[in-house]
Amino acid sequence: MDYLTENIDSLNQKLAAGTVSADELLQASLDQIDEHKNLNAWITVDKDAKPQTDLDFKANKLAGIPIAVKDNIVTKGLRTTAASHILDNFMPVYDATVVQRLRKAQATIFGKTNMDEFAMGSSTEHSYFGLTRNPWELNHVPGGSSGGSAAAVASGQVVAALGSDTGGSIRQPAAFNGIFGIKPTYGRVSRWGLIAFGSSLDQIGVLSKRVRDSAEVLNVIAGPDDHDATVSERPVPDFTAALGKDVKGLRVAVPKEYMSDAVDADVRQAVQKQIDALKAAGAIINEVTLPYTKYVVPTYYLIASSEASSNLQRYDGIRYGFRAKDTKNLMDVYLKSRSEGFGEEVKRRIMLGSFALSAGYYDAYFMQASRVRTLICRDFDNIFKNNDVIVGPTTTTPAFKIGEEIQDPVKMYNNDILTISANLAGLPAASIPAGLSDEGLPVGFQIMGQRFDEAHVLQTADFIERSNKFYQQKPAGLED
Amino acid sequence: MKLTREDIAHIATLSRLSFDDKELDKFTKQMGEIIDMANQLQAVDTKGVPATTQVVDRDTVFREDQPEKWQSRSEMLQNVPDSSNGFIKVPVIIDKDDND
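Structure tokens for the assembled complex are given below, as produced in the milestone run.
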């Protein structure tokens, strides 16, 4: 079974016809994981996992299909660590809503993918379980924080994986690995059971080679949930209905800030080709401006870190997680458990958040960032008055080298400049491959839509997929 | 504003984190660079602009206060680092010296 040339529909047909079994599909995933061990895309794999019984291939497209789950989404009886030492022995006693829904759809859940610790990072280098490599070029990063999910899909270990996206953590690794990834609208998918990082920004989404596969998974996981009151009660459409359409008359905005010379020339060129293809097919291209783009990185890092510092207070070494030894009082338990349990990047974010929320600095930092967030949201509202989607590059560069940015947090944070706004404004956004850079690394094309308008995002991505057929290419690093 | 080593040590205490001298030096430098970046926001005129702290499309959600069966005692204790007779064990919370 070659997952690189399969998709959910093709696998579903084979399963229904009996030419392959769910056990064989799971074994194919386990074999591929073994084959690509050097990528280190997984934290935990349950080799004893079994597909469900009484599979109904007609009712459930995902029945018997192995789906990867990022390791910050809790899975009952399957270790969940968020790639942190502080949770390295954590065994959830319940399933996240998205996992419950995948199980109800009879998907096979068998393993957890690597990530930056607590989803804080853009390279999957900040994992307690070691870094993940990019299947296109093994000494480059896969992006992050959903780097394990992206590398697992790009190297054919699974057809689809769940990820989470707080500031670009699905779209940036999708771009770096030459696959599709979508962060739905904030409030489209339940966060219950997602280990919290930035609660007003976090959203679970999907990574897959093919657009349709993500739409199929989204159909299963989206929708209201009694356990998460931030999920919208709006009806969830059939996301596959947006596929296979033309783009005639589609109003496409291109922010000039996203095509400035801060973006590598070869990245811009690959992106421009997709814009030209949209135009040639009858889409209306409008150049627009997002004047607050230069402020999105500091705005995001203040807000996300403030929320993180609050969310991560719960790791105190008492009820679950790592507890330091040789402590002399309660304060000592907190200090030692947290200092030994958290990695450096997580500590930096907690520190930044504590600072931004502390007496004397709260108004100048957290509140000022929250006010600038309003201005950023208004920028987008204005553009969507006259446009259906906003497009541009997903990242300013293709995948960078391992070790290249890890010592320079500010440089690392600036990676997220093009993806962060969708989180601040709660918009649905996706990345679809645009082609290869001069170095032969994948370039991502980002598509953002209005809140709850995943349909236009998927429609545009599907058009790009059909026009450039990038999915036919295989990662160069797999040849090694 | 410029963060001093003492400021960083104070923020570390607020964060329930402790650093040795070397780490403190490193964090002082890195946090300084991050705060420099954050200071760019001071140039934005936000007079009269309300804050956005969430982008949820629902108001406060109410539900019936109905009990439901959830985790059992043994499940709830499954991840506790140290327990005894169904209780969570914690270290002494007062310094041994203070008891003398």
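Residues 5 and 49 of chain B are 34 Å apart (CA to CA). The mean pLDDT of chain B is 90. Further analysis is deferred to the final report.
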